[in-house]
Predict the 3D structure of the following.
Amino acid sequence: MSALTQLGDSRELLANLTLREVRGKYKRTALGQVWSLINPLAMMLIYTAVFGQVLRVTIPPGNPSGLHLFALWLVCALLPWNFMSNAMTGGMSSLVGNANLIKKVYFPRQVLVAATVLSWDVTFLTEMGVLTAVLLAFGGMPLPWLPLVVVFMAFLTLFALGLGLALSVANVYFRDTQHLVGIVMQIWFYATPIVYPISYVHKEAVKLHDKGWNIPVEFMYRLNPMERFVEVFRSLMYDNRWPALGDALYCIGAGIVSVVIGYWLFARFEGRMAEEL
Amino acid sequence: MSDSVIVVDGVSKRFRLYHQRNQSIKAALMRGGRAKYEEFWALKDVSFEVPEGSMFGLMGVNGSGKSTMLNCIAKILRPDKGTIATRGKFSALLELGSGFHPELSGRENIYLNGSILGLSKRELEARFDEIVDFAGVEQFIDQPVKNYSSGMYVRLGFSVAINVDPDVLLVDEVLAVGDAAFQEKCMEKFAEFRRAGKTVVVVSHAMGTMRTLCDRVAWLDAGRLVEVGRPDELIDRYIDEGHVQRGDADGGSRWGSGEGALTSVAFVDAAGAPTTKLRTGDEATIRLTYETRQRIDKPVFGLAIETLEGVYVWASNTRDADYVPDCIEGSGTVEFHIPRLMLLPGTFDISASIVDFSTVHVYDFRRHCYRFDVDHGTPRESGGLVSLGGAWRNLTSGSATADRAVQSLESGS
């Protein structure tokens, strides 16, 4: 793929644009990069209060880690979700946001999307680092699993990059895309077992089956690649065990397929980009 | 061709002019699919080659497609037909400082913009001082660029772009930035570029700059290539053609009640043929040809000369010259004879008129109806608009030897 080699040739540009994103994100804020930790912390507190305390979502204890804390269980899935959501929507708006650059200078345009995704990777890495420390403090042992965590972070990055590439060109031609995606992300969030365990879906499926509805609810539910990613990250970080092989392969496949299709769409539609912006 | 850095082959570029643009899915659905648009071909089957080491100009009136062409060469726009083959590293000065992030410092932006333009970190470090020095922003290099003045902003943008050290530089009308000193620095940089055997492609309206800078120019008109050739020939033709367009078609340039009309205004040579090329010191004649629809009593003919910049150089009319006939009827001519043309080299426009004796009522006024060039002749004077035909004399000096030298100077001349 020439697009990939092109991306390789512009490594330095990619690095510089990523730095620009990272530095620009919290410029002129008193707390600076600390904001990237406050946001997930706030979300964690809100979801823990609502789903852990008020709605009393019951979660299985970590096996074999022995952890049993809703907030930690939640964050192990929330951080990958936040990354995917931010990286994808950020990548989507990166072309429109840099219209002045695209219209005046030639450089491989996919770098803009990739830089935005990578800038969120920086945030993701920091968050995961802090989470590791917290898990250790509460008696978990995620350290041996960290190399695998990084591998799956890479595939999640590919997954978000592919979606970002496809949506970024769509957004150039139809500005509605970004608003539509806002709604889709809300649905997607609740369609992924982040604030509740997948056993709840199983219960619902059994109920439906007893009523005579023969819908493969669980099968459909598990088609969602984010469901698999969330399971994998939870296995590694919260439970401290090997993820299910099927889930792991599904994640790898989803990352590769997403990036291939994303690139293909991007390459197809980038030609008239400068005049459409 | 191995010595061409850019080969443009049969390039066409189409733009879509949307009547109501579908930038929303709703609008797309409501209108049943495609938005209505008209096609507009900004470039039609253009082919030319840019030889290595040349200064190549693209000229044409507004909307002739020259900027579109430059954008296609810079790969910002993709042609719909044809190919553009390029060789070497390109840098485009289309809009300066467009890649700057306002919140980041000048230093950070140099690295950022440099890498967008294709420089590696090591190359940037090596040229960093030169870039800052050229832009003249040493003091402010660690300030966010949003605090820069617009001049500093543009200078820094130019400085980064020119220090990319490209093989081919694409320039779009950006020479009009900065103060005189900075412009001079830019010109020097271009000269340096050419000495190093690099290629520059420039789009400009400034015909004077094009004439002195370029080795070759391509003339585009309404998206088609008219011709590629030497700048002096093409620019003359371009200006000539420009004046045809500016003539009668251009409503503001001719007015009057029409009882009498000037059918032609021209410099004529000894044989009576019209000419637009004259030399300083030439004997010259301006001939006015008129036609009247009815008898005109005591008409006054007038002539004026202006430079292209609009400086009013000279005027004369038959009333002030006391050369007014009782009447004219039908058609005829009148001439203004110039024994020695005292204009120095340049391009000038003639305006001509017929008015009544009070000079209040205008029968016909033709503004800028004839353009002519004056070339070097005798007397050869250093510069300005007019020749005074004078001579240097009466040099005095304190020493006797110098006095003798002065005498020999005067007897020699």
